[in-house]
Amino acid sequence: MEFKINYIAIVIAVIANFILGYLWYSPFFGKIWAKEMGFKTGNEPKQSEFIKGLVYMLIGNFLFAWVLAHNIVAWQFVPDIKEMGKFSNAISSAIFTWIGFYFPVHLGSTVWEGKTWKLVGINGGYHLASLIVVSFILTYWI
């Protein structure tokens, strides 16, 4: 069996995820998120912190897309998965990854870190949206 990863799809997924993150945490939910995190709105990070954050996000987005691509490709070897179709594969990949790996962490953050349900909704919603976007890009281009 051949195991190929489309790195162009990964780069596009990284860019799409980066744009989604900007939109999610700036115009869509930025003020609410900052309030829930206890940040003062209007405080701009230092340029060095901002650049460091962008670099870390790019690295994180790459690792996220790269590992998810491997996961999606690995599941394509299961005969029943191909019969589901790409749309179902993308949705299943996103939702089951979110339920199993992201949502439990968000649940724990309400108890152990004192995060509000509003913050869990914003962060959890972003992670689910991110998984859906990246899963569709990878599933259709792998």
Describe the 3D structure.
By secondary structure, the chain is mostly helical. The protein has one domain. The chain is 82% helix and 0% strand. The chain has 6 helices and no strands. The protein has helices spanning 7-28, 30-37, 47-75, 79-84, 86-112, 117-141.
Compact description:
By secondary structure, the chain is an all-alpha fold. The chain is built from 6 helices and no strands.
Radius of gyration, CA atoms, in whole angstroms: 17 Å
- The number of E-state strands comes to 0
Q: Structural class of the secondary elements?
A: mainly alpha
**Chain-averaged pLDDT:** 92
Helix content: over 70%
Terminal Cα separation, in Å?
A: 15 Å
Oligomerization category of the chains in this entry: single chain
**Low-pLDDT regions:** none
SSE string: HHHHHH
Q: What can be said about the biggest beta sheet?
A: none
Helical segment tally?
6
Strand residue content: under 5%
Overall, the morphology is: globular
Number of domains: 1
Key terms:
single chain, 142 residues, mainly alpha, 82% helix, globular
List the helices and strands and how they pair.
Elements: H1 7-28, H2 30-37, H3 47-75, H4 79-84, H5 86-112, H6 117-141
